[in-house]
Amino acid sequence: MFKSISKRALVILASFVITVSGLATMQAANAGTNAKCNLNTKVANAECDEIVYGTIHRVGGLDRKTPSTGGYTDSQMAYITQGQLYRFDENLVPRRDLVSQKITSRDGLTVTLKLRQARYSDGTPVRAQDAVVSYQRWVASNASPAYIAKVASIREVDFRTLEIKLKSTYPDIDFALASEFFGLHPYSRVNTPAKAAAYFRNPVSAGPMKVKQFTPGTDTFIAEANSSYWAKPVVKQLKVVFLPDPTSRQLALQQGTVDYVFELPLTAREQTASSTVRVFPHFDPGTFMLAINMDKDQTNPALRDPRVRRAISLAVDRAQIMRVAFGGLSKPNCGMQFNVNNPLYVCSIPKKGARDLAAARQLLTQAGYANGFKMTMIYPTRVLWPEANAIIKSNLADVGIDVTLKPEPDANMNQYLALNQTPWEIMWFGNNAATPILQLSNWFAIGGLWAGFVGKGVATDPGDVELNGLLDRANTVTSLKERRNLLTQLEAKAFESSHFIPIGTRYRLSGTKVAPGIAQPPIPGDLWFHIGINPPLPKN
Predict the structure, then answer these.
(1) Band of the pLDDT at 229, cuts 50, 70, 90?
(2) What does the domain layout of the chain look like in residue ranges?
(3) pTM value?
């Protein structure tokens, strides 16, 4: 990866009703900040008895190779309670965790990893075969396969030596090794689907925390420090409590019943920030977007026309959406990638992403929709997203597109996406990944996660093959200039299709009572969680 920019190599109508379940959970919570666990505490000196995390999801599952109902909270809690070859630090930089030494061959096609003498929380030794089976399960799951598309094979050389053979050079391999999908567990307990299903009800851990209390889909999840881990976690216990609406999370933070929340309403900036509470935009390495269904179950003929899709892209007012709905805390996008701390970012939308109603109307006329058309747009009911979608509805009305908004709880989104059970037309969502190329791979690679959701990324489609080739080349070269040139070509072709329409860089308004690096997702990031440890993850 490249030299760090801001400490990393490549970074980058809410409800006002406090629900009964939210109140009950807040009363049960007991936040744990103290003299050695507050906004001013350094990780090296931190001692936190308990951190209480208020989240929008119930923890539904800890196996990242199987679908679950807990959204990013499942991923976060799995991450801290599983072993990792590499682990993301607080700045989303992949660091060696259970790996003591990495050796790369001169041609860059063989990577040998030497493992620490580590044990799981039940005393079982960590061995290289655990990583082999994890990789095999990842491949079988088809979860974000673009991340490991360059891997030819992984094998155990001996108990603590792992050999990875690559199809071509892979400068970003450390990010794949740090992925939530590469979690390590004792191989003999997860090497069949039946074994894995039973094991993940109460898994052991080679990460900084281990599971203490977990019943899938309930309001409380508790992890505690793993005394078998090679470093000492600064948090003795992490309690995750389900607070389903933003006002309940804000109130809990104000009252001191939680220490950290990930999604707050904009009012928290004035009402909650204080000398003991920091409210801040937590950026993600991802992009707010409109995704258009390109699969055979697309029932709206207008959306099958690329001219119509480009017209939608030109008609939305990105600046207004990010300024009004998101409080101006994150910028509109003029390209596909996230635009925070990203040296690969390129502007690929005409007029640098500015609204162009004349061009939009011209495209609609050419496509035979001069008088507009009707469509239904789905969006998950997260904080600030209803406001953003209301603005888009108004924007598109200016060119005759009549939008019916259909809000859905997070738990319902799998029926449209991973399970592909319910037809849909267009959707507001976000696309995150640890690097710009991995983010673009989600959209445009053969087998990309979001590509699959919308019916693209198909090896028999010449356009998809061309985009995949550009991505593969960009993910092979190390020259920043050459990477940018390749991604500029890719994004120009992506705009022509516009089945993904970028809006702005993702963020969540977050609040915390403890200092950075103690207990929160990396910045940027939402799919992972970081627990401070002493000594820290190796920096070399």
Answers:
(1) very high
(2) 20-277+513-534, 283-507
(3) 0.88
